[in-house]
């Protein structure tokens, strides 16, 4: 895809069919969803069985990075494919309706499709590791020991070059059947927030150290 284009063109693969009014294909929306999380779900097939696993990820431009041990069966399975996808979901609230049927969830989700490739250059591997740290905690990559040659050797990094993507967002209250609005049943939304609590310093710390800026920023919940 072209970075200068403001949106992903939906195809038969990426076009949202259900709840199309909640769908979006503009890159700013998709990237905002991706950048405010660090866990994605990755589907693959192993011995004719579909499997979906949660993994840490990072976005750099229009590339998603995943990593694992060199023997990781998921990375091996995906590396041979021409296409792959990942899904990222934020849970924002429980939508409690008057009827059992109309209960729902407020959420923000992105489904990303693209071409996988194994990263072979050490320089790109190092970049991927830095991005993975930054995805978790902004500024952390500047506070830690850098990845050494052995760690590069025993880690496989997979890059997903994004070719198309869609976002889907639900917010607001319950949508009930017209007759159900007259019922004496409470309805509404219970919001859900992802908050960072106070840090717990490692008891094996060799020095009496101040809390680093990346952690302070996290625990202030202003990422």
TrEMBL record:
SUPFAM superfamilies: FMN-binding split barrel. InterPro entries: Pyridox_Oxase-rel, Split_barrel_FMN-bd. It holds the Pfam family Pyridox_ox_2. PANTHER family: 5-NITROIMIDAZOLE ANTIBIOTICS RESISTANCE PROTEIN, NIMA-FAMILY-RELATED PROTEIN-RELATED, FLAVIN-NUCLEOTIDE-BINDING PROTEIN. This is Pyridoxamine 5'-phosphate oxidase-related, FMN-binding. The lineage of its organism: unclassified sequences, metagenomes, ecological metagenomes.
């Amino acid at each position: 895809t072209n970075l200068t284009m403001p949106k992903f063109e939906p195809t038969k693969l990426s076009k949202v069919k259900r709840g199309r009014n909640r769908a979006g294909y503009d890159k700013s929306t998709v990237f905002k969803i991706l950048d405010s999380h660090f866990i994605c779900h990755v589907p693959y097939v192993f011995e004719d069985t579909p499997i979906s696993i949660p993994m840490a990820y990072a976005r750099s431009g229009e590339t998603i990075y995943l990593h694992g041990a060199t023997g990781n069966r998921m990375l091996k399975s995906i590396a041979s494919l021409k296409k792959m996808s990942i899904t990222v979901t934020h849970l924002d609230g429980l939508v409690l309706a008057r009827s059992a049927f109309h209960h729902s969830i407020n959420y923000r989700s992105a489904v990303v499709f693209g071409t996988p490739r194994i990263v072979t250059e050490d320089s790109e591997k190092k970049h991927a590791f830095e991005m993975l740290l930054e995805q978790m905690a902004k500024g952390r990559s500047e506070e830690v020991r850098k990845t050494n040659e052995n760690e590069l050797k025993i880690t496989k990094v997979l890059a997903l070059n994004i070719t198309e993507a869609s976002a889907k967002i639900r917010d607001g209250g319950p949508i009930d059947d017209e007759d159900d609005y007259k019922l004496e049943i409470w309805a509404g939304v219970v919001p859900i927030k992802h908050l960072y609590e106070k840090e717990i310093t490692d008891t094996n710390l060799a020095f009496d150290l101040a809390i680093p800026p990346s952690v302070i920023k996290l625990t202030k919940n202003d990422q």
